[in-house]
Structures are given as structure tokens and as C-alpha cells.
Amino acid sequence: MKKINLILSQALEKISPTEEELKGIEIKLEGFLKEIKKQISQLNISAEIFVGGSFAKGTVIKKEKYDIDIFLRFDKKYDKDALSSLTEKILSFGNFKKIHGSRDYFRIDASKNIIFEIIPVRKIKTPKEAENITDLSYFHVNYIKKKFRGRRILNEVRLAKAFCYSNKCYGAESYIRGFSGYGLEILIYYYGGFLNFIKKIVKADLRKKIIIDAGKFYKNKNSVLMDLNAAKLDSPIILIDPTYKHRNLLAALSEEKFQKFQKACRNFLANPNLDAFSIMKIDFKNLKENARKKKQDFVLLEAKTDKQEGDIAGSKLLKFYKALSNDIKKYFEIKTSEFEYAGNKTANFFFSVKNKGEIILSGPFLKDKKNSTKFRKKHKKVFEKRNRLYAKEKINFNLKEFLNKWKKENKLCMKDMNILKLEVKI
């Protein structure tokens, strides 16, 4: 425990923004909010401003770039479809980028390391009136501010966020399917700290769902399962939003990501180290050298899509990665592989594979005379089994050769999947 506490203390110092950084954000934010208030007044728009996200809650961790969420709460008299266009009018004083989604929002580069995200929401009195997930943000911020008293619990949340971020389990985006920031905050509050949280995760039985009703809305766990619709019950952890009983905060969490996180927790408790809270850049050259020693093929690829950066681009690139992986598996045994959304419209993924040597190809049924003749001409080692043709084929090409051929043969497929480029980097 002494070693763990020392590591946690060192990690906290490393992941916490400095007073100077926080002051710099506050100054930029204050000036920006002043300009927005001025625009709202001049345009005679009924809207109020509130700052949300980690910065408002006091749980922000040190990053190269800080995303600050600014919500514009519009009066209910405005049509829901007009909220984004009203926001655009308010922001006409600066350069912004429109991000398309279920409700369009806007991004402004305030400085080289500060980004403001301006999100239009409807001013509602209760969570059940929400028409969009972002409408609930106001209640989330207020709940955390009310419950999180003192620096200790805020620091525990910071540790949890940094740990998840380091182990690539942070974010509810569809290309990540990990823990949301608000979800982690509620988990840490429920378990009383980061260490208690990861100890519970390690002991969790993957065959049973973890059900947490932090707001104590339900009589028992069965009531939770009965009340939520099936789409919200797929995640390994069902965490009821303490501000809204019909929402599972971790509905996006996948089984695969949970298992990855559980393994990371187990490794940390067995061998506490500071690296568990650091974003480690993948050493591709080292991976390639390790693959060479094991007589494996290694390839690093960069793919680019024409879809909007963020969740849409990341999801498209992940889907493409999975499709490509499935085709690689036909000829190679994948030893290690990983997908990494690189931001903007690109992603990197690597494969370390072993040649299968020989594979069995399934051909047509014997009664299909025409295609059977073609199949026999195309393949040398053909045999019959259960009224069907099969062929043995030697794998006499490496992964790079396979990929070069694959790109030529799948140009249409790549176009259909909105992939503009697939390039071998290493």
C-alpha cells in the first residue's frame, strides 16, 4: 500500500494542471464569455450561458490541448431546429468550425492549447424534458458541484480519468466505447475513490452485469433491468444517471473495452507504476523489431476518410480497420494489432502477423458444373468433400504484398466505405 500511495501521489502531481495553466484558461474564457453575452444582448436572444465539462466540475486533467465546454441554454420558445443557427449568429464575431451531429455545435481555437466548444441546448426544468443528450449537461454539472465537496474526491476523479485515458478506455465515442467523463465521476463518488473502484473492477465476474443505482431510484437490481429498455442494457456496467433514472451512463461501454480496462487494473495492482497514468507513444520501430525476432510480418498503416473529423471519422475508420482485419485473417494469423484514431480524418493501425503457410479454400458444389470447371482451372490442389470442391493454396506472399494486392482489388470497397487513402508507413 505504501508503494501504491506513493505512485498515486506522484501521478496526481503529474496529471494536474498548474495554477498558471488554469489561470490562463480562466482569462481566455472570461474574455470570450463577455463577447458572447454582448452578442446575445445585441441580438435580443433569450439565452443564458453556463460552462460545463471537466473544467467547470474541477476534474480536468493536464493535456496538450484543453477542451472547454460552453453551453448556450435557449428559451423553450425557440424551435429545437433553430438552436444551432441561433448559436451561429451569436458566434459571428469570430472564426469557428461547425461540427455536425444530432444537433450541430461549434468549435473555436482560443489559443494553441485551448479550444472552446460551444453547444446549444434547450433550457429545461427537469431531465425528463430533454430532447437531446446535451440538454442534460446542466444537471450533470450541478450534481457534481453539489456532491463533490473538497479536493480529495476531485483528485480521485483525476486519477481515474488519467488512468483510463492512458489505457485507451476513456471516451464514450463509438470508435472508443469506453468510460465517459461523467460516468467515471459518478463511479468514483459511488466507490469512494480511485483505488476502491479498480479493486472492485478486478473482482468483477464478466458473466454478471455490475448494476449501480447511485441515485437510489429503484428498489432492487431486477427493477433496474425491468425498467430500462433493452438497448441500454448491453454494457457490462449499468450505471443509472443520478439525475435521470431512465439513462444508463455507461451504455456505450463495450465488453471488449471493459475487459481491457479490467486487465489494466489488475496489472497496476500487481505492479504499481507511474506509466499507468501516462500517455505512452507507441514505439512502432520497436514493435517491428520484436516482430522480426519472432519471425512475424509487421506493418503500420495510415488510413484517411472523407468524413467529418471526430466521432464520425473515427467510427468509419474503425469499421474499415475491422473489415481489413477480417480479410487479413484469411491468410495470416494476427498476433497483435491495434487501431488508433489519430485525430482529424486519419487513423493508424498496425498488424503483427504470422503466415498460415497453407489455407483451404471453399469452392462450388459439384452439381454447379460451370463454376466447378473454373475452380479446377484456377487451383492446382483441388479435392472433393461432401459434394463440394475445395482447394489447398500455399501462402507464398508476405503481408505487404497482400496489402498492395488488396488495395488494387478493393478500390470500390474502399470508396463505398469512404476511405480516401490506405498507405503503408512501416
Number of helices: 15
What's the story with the biggest beta sheet?
5 strands, mixed
Low-confidence stretches: none
The order of strands across the largest sheet is: 1-2-5-4-3
Structural class: alpha+beta
The shape is globular
- DSSP summary, beta strand count: 15
Radius of gyration: 26 Å
Span from first to last CA?
Answer: 42 Å
What's the overall average pLDDT, rounded?
92
Order of helices and strands: HHEHEHEEEHHHHEHEEHHEHEEEHEEHHE
Itemize the secondary structure elements and their pairings.
Elements: H1 2-15, H2 19-42, E1 47-52, H3 53-57, E2 66-74, H4 83-90, E3 97-99, E4 105-111, E5 114-122, H5 137-147, H6 151-166, H7 181-191, H8 194-203, E6 210-213, H9 221-227, E7 237-241, E8 244-248, H10 255-270, H11 284-293, E9 297-305, H12 311-329, E10 332-343, E11 346-355, E12 358-365, H13 369-378, E13 381-385, E14 388-394, H14 399-409, H15 411-416, E15 419-424
Parallel strand pairs: 2-5, 6-7
Antiparallel strand pairs: 1-2, 3-4, 4-5, 7-8, 9-11, 9-15, 10-11, 12-14, 13-14
Helix pairs in contact: 1-6, 6-7, 8-10
Describe it.
Helix content is 42%, strand content 25%. It has helices spanning 2-15, 19-42, 53-57, 83-90, 137-147, 151-166, 181-191, 194-203, 221-227, 255-270, 284-293, 311-329, 369-378, 399-409, 411-416; strands at 47-52, 66-74, 97-99, 105-111, 114-122, 210-213, 237-241, 244-248, 297-305, 332-343, 346-355, 358-365, 381-385, 388-394, 419-424. Helix 8 (194-203) packs across helix 10. The longest helix is centred in the N-terminal third of the chain and has 24 residues, at 19-42. The radius of gyration is 26 Å and the shape is globular.
